[in-house]
Amino acid sequence: MNKKLILTKDYFIAKGGERDCYSNPLDFTKVIKVLHTYNNENNRNQNDLDYRYFKFLEKLKVPFSHISKTYGYVDTNLGKGLVFDKVCDYNGKISMTFLDTIIKDKFTKEQEDLLVEDLRNYLFENNVLFIDIGLYNILCCEYEKCKYKLVIIDGLGGRRTGVKFWLYLNSTSFTKYKIKKSWKRFLAEIYRKRKQYNKKV
Questions:
Q1: In terms of domains, do 45 and 101 share one?
Q2: Which sign, positive or negative, has the C-alpha torsion 114, 98, 108, 196?
Q3: What sign results for the dihedral spanned by CA atoms 47, 51, 57, 63?
Q4: How would you classify the pairing of strands 138-144 and 147-152?
Q5: CATH code for position 38
Q6: Which of 36, 41, 86, 132 has the most crowded CB, counting CB atoms within 10 A?
Q7: Under 8 Å between Cβ of 154 and 16
Q8: Helices (H), the chain
């Protein structure tokens, strides 16, 4: 029988709308996302949605170069958790959010636009749906010194089960339409954040 992993505040990384994220105590290259232990009846169970969507992408042999890969479930003291790659820079530090790079003026607008275009090419070429377009759902990974790429860590695939989620998994044309629609919202969100923090738009 597998022993439960004990997740304590020492391993805590971040709190999301539905899940908490912890470093994996047995493998610091991974994180574990667990549902909040309160108000579970209102959760959409994003872990199950993520697991189903990532299995779908695996079946299609989609590369995980710009998304954090999932590895399945583990038992923890806080309930069932889903394991993902931890997105870190070449020096081992957890990568900065894309939102923080905008707030802190890490890049010129031109450099930023190139990173965004690279992510766009990945999503459109592989038919990957980024539905929850918050800039905090993307990390900017410095994978080699002064070399960067954007990696999505949350918000892929769907917000809930139902007809739309079924279509995402079974209708390429519907998914392509939704990807284009979500991308327009994503670009609008970048523009909005740049203006909010008085950056070049």
A1: no
A2: positive
A3: positive
A4: antiparallel
A5: 3.30.200.20
A6: 86
A7: yes
A8: 46-59, 98-103, 109-126, 163-170, 172-196
Same domain for 81 and 105, yes or no, is no
Neighbour tally for 58: CB within 10 Å: 12
Domain that holds residue 65: 9-85
Identify the pLDDT of residue 3: 81
Average pLDDT over residues 176-181: 94
Supply φ then ψ for residue 143, to 5 degrees. Answer: -75, -25
Of 14, 138, 149, residue with least CA distance to 89: 149
Confidence of residue 39 (pLDDT cuts 50, 70, 90): low
What's the pTM value of the predicted model, to 2 decimals? Answer: 0.92
The tokens describing 186, both together, are 């994503």
Number of domains in the chain: 2
CA distance 190 to 194: 6
Q: Which residue, of 85, 120, 140, is where some domain finishes?
A: 85
CA-nearest of 89, 182, 68, 170 to 129 is 182
CB atoms within 10 A of CB 158: 23
77-92 residue pLDDT tens: 999 999 999 999 999 9
107 Cα distance to chain centroid: 21
